Amino acid sequence: MSTQTRSASPAADRRAPRILVVDDERSMRELMAIVLHREGYDVLLAENGKTAIDLLERESVDLLISDIKMPDVSGVDVLRAAKAVDRDILGIMITAFASTETAVEAMRLGACDYLSKPFDVDLLKMKVREKIESRELRQENVMLKRTLGLTHQFANIVGRSQAMLDVFKMIETIARTNSTILLTGESGTGKGLVAQAVHFHSLRRDRPMVSLNCGALPETLLESELFGHMRGSFTGADANKKGLLEVGERGTVFLDEIGEMTPPMQVKLLHVLQERRFRRVGGLEELQADIRFIAATNQDLSKRVAEGRFREDLFYRINVIPIVLPPLRERREDIPLLADHFLAKYAELMGKQMAGISNHALELLVRYAWPGNIRELENVMERAVALEASPMVLPDSLTPAIREGAPQPQAATPAPLESVPGPGFDLEAHVQEIERVYIAEALKRAGGVQVKAAELLGMSFRSFRYYAKKYNLR
Ligand SMILES: Nc1ncnc2c1ncn2[C@@H]1O[C@H](COP(=O)(O)OP(=O)(O)OP(=O)(O)O)[C@@H](O)[C@H]1O
Ligand SMILES: [Mg+2]
Fold it and tell me: What's the gap in Å between 109 CA and the centre of ligand 2?
């Protein structure tokens, strides 16, 4: 006989906080139910630990009040189960006598409070109110953070540039549709990350997202990966196998490097997109493909269409919603934000206390061209956190390329020398004269602004200042 009972809460515009009371003593349950119900809470009752855990898995609960000592399943076990369901559930444990052991254990699990039997009803009311209020406050904070964070971060995607704000907006708008998306951007610009964000904001989030790199597999393998195959359909096919289209049914299929797909595969994919049906390799049965496709490429697909290397009809089928991720060098305002984001990430992972990035190091990061985009920035920050002995990231723990401001456009290679100058030639003086001319000219073009002049010459501000001083140029 189960004694789980629900007492309806007084009507309110928002849901009344829900409390689960677990006690094997009937009189205690009833007392608490009356008191808490009168306070306006929605109360669930369970007579033992097992019933309580079943309830926790089905119902959302804000606060757990449980007797610690119960036969079979203890209150601490119930609390542990509650925390596994929802990390933020609060607990009040009731003990007949204070046992430090269980108290410590429950504390570790995050039961914030105790009541010892017999307890005063007013004390119960007060503790409950305190807990519920702190939970509500915390939830409001989380909500607030989310809304605030929205401008600089969406899911795990960080950015404040207009281009990225547009991307966030776009993901929000289109995630819940089933439209095919084409992500375009250089390597390391976050195409994979955006694909994930779309999936996890879609109604398909409880279904799998499967990815396939179309450039990494030979055609026959790619075909069987995508469509699956029947036993015996080719040498080596010794069993039937589901393809990603089946595994990803009602989910999302991410086709990475779609520009690399061979013409015959392009035809097959076009068929799936048009008919929403497909067959396994060697199979007769037509299978349904209820799938959201996201494709990505680091190439200019329209150019490949113009060159006759990518089917135009397929291009239009996948380019329903284009999202372009600009290279990092075209959204430098995102660099400080991203650098901080990765600094925090790796400091936490490596258990290091990091205070921040020095101004000079940040200057170098912002100025660098980032051919590997955000992936490169992430690697650089990981390395910096690993190497840095001080709590600040200083230029020395950045890679030489960044410290030197490279890669910059290559300087023209000097013309081969016709002859070696005769005796008396002073190479050092000659080189210095060239240096002096360049430094002076750069300063002139930069209107006397040294940072700018340094940039023109692809050198660090520090080296520039050194030369400017050496040649007495200001
Ligand atoms: N805006 C961003 N905020 C935070 N992290 C990012 C952002 N963009 C990319 N990253 C991170 O940078 C790395 C590279 O991103 P991702 O793999 O999504 O790039 P990609 O465009 O798919 O590259 P490729 O074309 O080489 O596959 C990942 O670790 C990703 O988490
Ligand atoms: Mg990728």
Answer: 38
